[in-house]
């Protein structure tokens, strides 16, 4: 086992993990931006568009799923990273193919659902949903 190659492998994996984390952050920003723009536009329209305000939730939920996907993928890469690091610490363990960059698939839907429920991922779409639905409910009640 060549430790220098394993360390280089860890550096490559860390680059992927960092990129996934950055993508997740970007997705959250786009979610807030798009929902805010759609919401602001629709609230300036006449009362016939009251149901359309609920369409402002679509980007929040789509980006929620995308953020959960990035987190679940990041977690799988972290497991691969931990496996390679263990091989360096404990010589003689079963070795991963050198420079393998494909994490184990596991149970992708279960991992995605688990990632979607984490507070860091669910907070922004949850708050956006409460705000949009709350505004819709209040505005619909005022029209009657």
Summarize the structure.
This protein has helices at 3-43, 57-89, 108-116, 119-143. 75% of the residues lie in helices and 0% in strands. The protein is built from four helices and no strands.
Please characterize this protein's 3D structure:
75% of the residues lie in helices and 0% in strands. The chain is built from four helices and no strands. Helix 1 packs antiparallel against helix 2 and helix 2 packs across helix 3. It is elongated.
What tags apply to this protein structure?
144 residues, mainly alpha, 4 helices, 75% helix
Q: Helix fraction?
A: over 70%
| Order of helical and strand elements | HHHH
| Alpha-carbon Rg, integer | 21 Å
Give the overall pLDDT as a whole number.
Answer: 86
Number of helices: 4
Largest sheet: none
How many angstroms separate the termini?
Answer: 74 Å
Number of DSSP strand runs? 0
C-alpha geometry: elongated
Spans where pLDDT lies below 50 across 5 or more residues: none
Class by alpha and beta content: mainly alpha
What portion of residues belong to β-strands? under 5%
Draw up the topology in text.
Elements lengths: L2 H41 L13 H33 L18 H9 L2 H25 L1
